[in-house]
Amino acid sequence: QVQLVESGGGLVQAGGSLSLSCAASGRTFSPGAMAWFRQAPGKEREFAATIDWIRGTTYYADSVKGRFTISRNNAKNTVYLQMTSLKPEETAVYYCAAGRFFMASRNLYTYWGQGTQVTVSS
Predict the structure, then answer these.
(1) How far apart are CA 12 and CA 64, in angstroms?
(2) Burial of residue 121, with CB atoms counted within 10 A of its CB: 0-12 exposed, 13-18 middle, 19 or more buried
């Protein structure tokens, strides 16, 4: 059983920065990839970024490219999301996920955290 716990959400002004963390625990944690998704009120959960757990290769949604950075610390089983130049429309619950494949589709991720709220004020 794998558990993912996000932290670091909060309130930030438009244009500001915020960092999220997601710590994984489990008997044998060896994902193919970890990712961040987000879900705004009344909208579907959407992909933000993913990282290949072994190679460190990253991939971003166009909407966050150049502003968000995903990274990982394999020794700590932790993935991070550094967010800059945040916009009010990026207010959402941010979820981390772990899966076998380095892909953007949420259907390919098996384990999910409980989410952390990010609110961007205008």
Answers:
(1) 17
(2) exposed
From start to end of 1-122, where are the E strands?
2-7, 10-13, 18-26, 33-39, 46-52, 58-60, 68-73, 78-83, 92-99, 109-112, 116-121
In the structure encoding, which two tokens stand for residue 16, read together?
A: 């500001």
Cβ contacts of residue 65 below 8 Å, gap of 6+?
none
| Residue partners of 75: CB distance under 8 A and separation at least 6 | none
Give pLDDT tens digits for 24-59. 998 778 899 999 999 999 999 999 999 999 999 999
Amino acid (1-letter code) at residue 28: T
**CA dist., res. 111 & res. 122, Å (int):** 33
Contact indicator for 98, 83 with CB cutoff of 8 Å: no
